[in-house]
From TrEMBL:
This is RNA helicase. It comes from the Eukaryota. The chain holds residues 123 to 900 of 1053 of the full protein. Its EC number is 3.6.4.13. Keywords: ATP-binding, Helicase, Hydrolase, Nucleotide-binding, RNA-binding. Residues 302-476 form the Helicase C-terminal domain. Residues 48-215 form the Helicase ATP-binding domain. Transmembrane segments: none annotated.
Length: 778
């Protein structure tokens, strides 16, 4: 032991030496001075003292004050100084991949090291970590995965959970786990870091843990709301802007309905305050324009106008545009590139920044462009707190962010653009004041801002809990309900019960709430269970390619375009993909494969144009497919030989069966009548198909069942997408308890299936199926 200690001490000294060498160099001096100029530096000693004396500490401070990059380094430095350096192990979690990577690179650079020396990172599918790595930045998901194999975090000296104010589901979950762990690991230090000031909530959750606030400095930022912007840019909102919807997928009325309550509140707020502000005093054009403003649509054209205004009239400085998602960012980027003002690469550097891009691409956004080039970054809300682009002077804020929301009563999850909170709007504005006074353009009226919620609801309270429940089980944290009731803000027990019931139905949990083999595999894939189940079966049945497309398609918009002035032509084009498939999902596979083939001959664009397909969406599907493939590989479900996983990829029956396995229990019965088709679900009775569904065009569906991914209630219940399946497929590929699930349906069904269910054959099938599951999954 003493030999080991000596060795460790020597490593520590080496680490010290290396640092001293760097700090004495010119670059090192410059860096050191920069670091000392950050607000966090003044609190360095106080921070270290509190951390050494308390097991849990809550640290808050303005974005950019140096929490993420400095605090972990202070701890590392003080441990090294105390000659414990080689023994310490600091883990700092980040909610997103890109921040884990960029922060670790920054910290390594500040220390004059390459990444992988004392500082490393680990995110899903990527990581750099060396023998001497003492400070590891990772995503929250990675730490949760480590807890799977190492419940006590053996050897870890400090856990820093960053950005807790975001209240992401993983972070809230991790806090419960850590709270349970702390008594078992008295030497473990836990530091919680948050941007805004809800530190009390976290402190009281950890029995009154001490709080430290780092006072910060940002330059003032001027806010311009829509009314100011319209005047400034002399831009008129017209009916055209409403067609050019931003952020809302118009096709789906249900989504509109979900928004309509909030929208009508906002609309009346707009009217009210327009009256109150007596807008007749202002130019009437502003008033006309504002009255055309549609709360759930902001035109790309308006954004383009604002950008033009800044580029033409304002001082130099980067522009950061907050948008809601990947597709919108890409569409706007394409639109801007056709404008000569933005297409000129010698004047404008146009970049995108969102979670699903490669990290090498993401890094570009930090670089400062050459003199005379203006950087424009189109970003999702990722750029709100976790990453700091220093040279931003102008912020354009669309006022929305995509958030998952979940209604426990209807048991339907949705990912919708929603109004952000006041806290988020302030945060976005603050991004403009990092290096000099800035300007923020909010693309909504001031009165709408005043109607925003103060804070966003924590994710745990607004998303389905299925994946989380699997995690709880795989970490062996006991009863799901008990565990979740101990969260910072416990979710609705009904939502918890729904999730547990669902997991039992799909066969991920058994009746005693134990993880099944399938459940264990699902818990290792960071996707919704229904998607995970399809991916797993796609891999097992060597039918991977089409399944990857289905899963990617379910996570994207519909690639089929239906412009209403050319609806007949569009429907005609779609019909060739639909032909005899009786499935929206198979239609997407066929369209995607056609496009892929066309791309190989460089005619993808023409193919899309001819077939009324969205090239943008197909590209999105393509990139998602790659991600899902990488996930399967990472979790060991497939090996290197990709070919063999496609042995049965041309078998549409098998694909149909795997779709069924994922979408179950979303199922409805089909009865073909003389002139119509009668569809029924157990919960809703008669249901209808969405106009755009492939099956809506059929006069007869030669299958007894449809499985569907989503239904929506407008006046009647509509199925948005569906795939027809046979009895045997449903029996074999429905959930593990598909018998129970089917019993309800059997009542509505005549003849065959009733007989089938009662026959010995059914039992045989069930046994066969379970054996099959166990065989392939263990
Ligand atoms: P916080 O976590 O408190 O929001 P950070 O520690 O992320 O603050 O950043 C502190 C400062 O370090 C920022 O104000 C910024 O000036 C600088 N910084 C952070 N990341 C980078 C980077 N990748 N490149 C250059 N400077 C950076
Ligand atoms: Mg930070």
């Amino acid at each position: 032991n003493t030999v080991l200690e000596k060795l460790l001490q020597r490593r520590s000294l080496q680490l010290c030496d290396q640092q001293l060498n760097f700090q004495n160099s010119a670059d090192g001096q410059k860096m050191l001075n920069f670091r000392k100029s950050l607000p966090a530096f003044k609190e360095r000693d106080a921070l270290l003292k509190v951390i050494s004396e308390n097991q849990v500490v809550v640290v808050s401070g303005e974005t950019g004050c140096g929490k993420t990059t400095q605090l972990p380094q202070y701890i590392l430095e003080s441990e090294v100084e105390a000659c414990r350096g080689a023994g310490c192990s600091i883990i700092c979690t980040q909610p997103r991949r890109i921040s884990a990577i960029s922060v670790s690179e920054r910290v390594a650079a500040e220390r004059g090291e390459a990444i992988g020396e004392s500082v490393g990172y680990k995110v899903r599918l990527e990581g750099v970590k060396g023998r001497d790595t003492r400070l590891l930045f990772c995503t929250t998901g990675i730490l949760l995965r480590r807890l799977l194999v190492d419940r006590d975090l053996t050897g870890v000296s400090h856990v820093i959970v960053d950005e807790i104010h975001e209240r992401g589901m993983n972070e809230d979950f991790l806090l419960v786990v850590l709270k349970d762990l702390l008594p078992r690991r008295p030497n473990l230090r836990l530091i919680l870091m948050s941007a805004t000031l809800n530190a009390e909530l976290f402190s009281s959750y950890f029995g009154g843990a001490p709080m430290i606030h780092i006072p910060g400095f940002t330059y003032p930022v001027r806010s311009h709301f829509l009314e100011d912007i319209l005047e400034m840019t002399r831009y008129r909102l017209t009916k055209y802007n409403q067609i050019d919807d931003y952020g809302v997928d118009k096709k789906w009325k249900m989504e509109k309905q979900a928004l309509s309550k909030k929208k009508s509140q906002l609309a009346s707020a707009v009217e009210g305050s327009l009256e109150a502000a007596n807008y007749t005093d202002y130019s009437s054009s502003t008033q006309d324009s504002l009255s055309c403003w549609n709360p759930d649509s902001i035109g790309f054209n308006l954004i383009e106008q604002v950008l033009c205004h800044i580029v033409k009239n304002e001082r130099p400085g980067a522009i950061l545009v907050f948008m809601t998602g990947w597709d919108d960012i890409n569409s706007l980027k394409e639109q801007l590139q056709t404008n000569p003002l933005f297409g000129d690469k010698s004047k404008i550097l146009l970049l995108a920044c969102h979670g699903s891009m490669a990290s090498s691409e993401q890094r570009l956004i930090f670089d400062k462009p050459y003199e005379g080039i203006r950087k424009i970054v189109l970003a999702t809300n990722m750029a709100e707190t976790s990453i700091t682009i220093n040279d931003v002077v102008f912020v354009v804020d669309c006022g929305k962010a995509k958030e998952t929301s979940y209604d426990a009563l209807n048991n339907t999850p949705c990912l919708l653009p929603n109004w952000i909170s006041k806290a988020a709007a302030r945060q976005r504005r603050g991004r403009a004041g990092r290096v000099q006074p800035g300007e923020c353009y909010h693309l909504y009226p001031r009165c709408v801002f005043e109607n925003f919620d103060d804070y966003q609801l924590p994710e745990l309270l607004r998303t389905p809990l299925q994946s989380l429940c699997l995690q709880i089980k795989s970490l062996q944290l006991g009863s799901i309900s008990d565990f979740l009731s101990r969260a910072l803000q416990a979710p609705d027990p009904l939502a918890v019960q729904n999730a547990i019931d669902y997991l039992k139905i799909i066969g991920a949990l058994d009746e005693q709430e134990n993880l099944t083999v399938l459940g264990r595999h699902l818990s290792m894939l960071p996707v919704e269970p229904k998607l995970g189940k399809m991916l797993i079966l796609g891999a097992i049945f060597n039918c991977l390619d089409p399944v990857l497309t289905v899963v990617a398609g379910l996570s994207s918009r519909d690639p089929f375009l239906m412009p209403f002035d050319r609806k007949d032509l569009a429907e005609g084009a779609k019909a060739q993909f639909v032909a005899r498939g009786y499935s929206d999902h198979l239609a997407v596979i066929r369209a995607y494969e056609g496009w892929k083939e066309a791309e190989r001959h460089r005619s993808g664009h023409e193919y899309c144009w001819r077939n009324f397909l969205s090239g943008q969406t197909l590209k999105g599907i393509d990139s998602l497919r790659k991600q899902f493939f990488a996930l399967l590989k990472d979790s060991g479900l497939i090996g290197d030989d990709a070919e063999s996983y496609n042995k049965w990829s041309n078998d549409e029956h098998l694909t149909r069966a795997i779709i069924c396995s994922g979408l179950f229990p979303g199922i409805c019965s089909v009865v073909n009548k003389e002139k119509s088709i009668l569809l029924k679900t157990v919960e809703d009775g008669p249901v209808l198909l969405c106009m755009n569904s492939a099956n809506a065009q059929e006069s007869k569906i030669p299958y007894p069942w449809l499985v569907f991914n989503e239904k929506m209630k407008v006046n009647s219940v509509f199925l948005r997408d569906s795939t027809a399946v046979s009895d045997s497929v449903l029996l074999l590929f429905g959930g593990k308890t598909s018998r129970g699930g089917l019993d309800g349906h059997v009542k509505m069904l005549d003849g065959y299936l009733e007989f089938f269910m009662k026959s010995a054959l059914a039992d045989m099938y069930m046994t066969l199926k379970e054996e099959l599951n166990d065989l392939v999954l263990t």
